[in-house]
Amino acid sequence: MRWCPSSVLHLLRCARLQLYTRRGRNRLPLWIREKWAYVRLLVQSLYFNSLTDSDVVFDSIFEPVFWTVDYVTRWFGLVFVFLVVILVSSCVVIAYVVLLPLVLNTYSPAWIVWHLCYGNWIIIMIGFHYYKATKTSPGFPPTEKNDSPFVAVCKKCIMPKPARTHHCGICNRCILKMDHHCPWLNNCVGHSNHRYFFSFCLFMTLGCVYCSISGRNLFLDAYNALERFKHLDMEKPGIPVTGMGILIGLLPPGQTNYQTSAPVYTFKEKMINKSIIYMWVLTSTVGVALGALTIWHAVLISRGETSIERHINSKEKKRMAKRGKVYRNPFNYGRLNNWKVFFGVEKRSHWVTRVLLPSGHAPHGDGLTWDVFPVKKDLIPV
């Protein structure tokens, strides 16, 4: 007797129906099943393709933290800018009101000319580059359809991203050749204002070092003066009177010290000394901190990379090293060429007119396309 295929299929269907019926009796409530399905979807989204790594998982988990930091930084940007303006203005006022009269009364004519020229040049360069860094747009990729090449699509803007372009969560836009978002500028540092940012850091550091070195002796004198008068205020002034002085009646009965008047120390002198101390401490600390940041950015510029590309290139070097290959930064044109491109130096005189003097010239290139490996010849011959 042979089995009929139709009867076998009928038995399988009956068994399957009974199994589903038993499962249906033990099902959880609908809202619990919906929550569980959502959790499973979130977990599966962390490894939905082969490109997912630990960085993607980390970003996904800490996305609320990043959003909070971006939101706070966006709203506190104006506070940071106001703080920079107040601190720099206070130092300028002290330099003109307190230090300049001392320089005119104590220094030789040659040193007076040096301090006036260098100090005013530094102030102009700091003010110009800070204003341009805050007000100049860092550069954005085009939003309309065009033929510009791109290397990826931004997952937040859903727009094509040219080479060296990255998304800023604080500005909520993609930035051409993005370096970082600077809260002290309340602006992103990108292709169009990177030179202004670095020049501001450079001249601010030079100004702080200048104030710290030239004002060291003034700081020590002011500090010693405050300490000296502080001790005089704590001690009771007077000269002991003994022997014949008591007999001839120099002092009233019962008094053994002749009270002398306290030395003259006006409120103006006290404020001058405190202003000198405030300026020296502020410029010294800012000079050390900002100097380290300036040196770091100078190293990155020499290598032809931004702060973001520094991390990307480091990962690429490790990845290529595992394959027995050497990674090479395609935007590194050589140390001198990198500085020429960064400052926009096209002839020898530009080292003075575009680097040592205020200049609002546009950066090299459009930020959308970049030359790759121009090593044999100067990118900008000088």
Automatic annotation (TrEMBL):
Signal sequence segment: none
Gene Ontology MF, one: protein-cysteine S-palmitoyltransferase activity
InterPro entries, A to Z: Palmitoyltrfase_DHHC, PFA4/ZDH16/20/ERF2-like
Coiled-coil portions: none
Residues passing through the membrane, by range: 75-99, 111-131, 196-219, 239-256, 276-301
Lineage: Eukaryota, Metazoa, Chordata, Craniata, Vertebrata
GO biological process, one term: fibroblast growth factor receptor signaling pathway involved in forebrain neuron fate commitment
One GO CC term, this protein: membrane
Name of protein: Palmitoyltransferase
Keyword Acyltransferase: yes
Pfam families reported for this sequence: DHHC
Subcellular location: Membrane
Enzyme Commission code: 2.3.1.225
Location of the Palmitoyltransferase DHHC domain: 153-311
Top enzyme class: transferase
Recorded domain comment: The DHHC domain is required for palmitoyltransferase activity.
Organism: Amphiprion percula (Orange clownfish)
Catalytic activity line of the entry: L-cysteinyl-[protein] + hexadecanoyl-CoA = S-hexadecanoyl-L-cysteinyl-[protein] + CoA
Coarse class of the protein's main subcellular location: membrane
Entry membrane topology: Multi-pass membrane protein
Origin: domain of life: Eukaryota
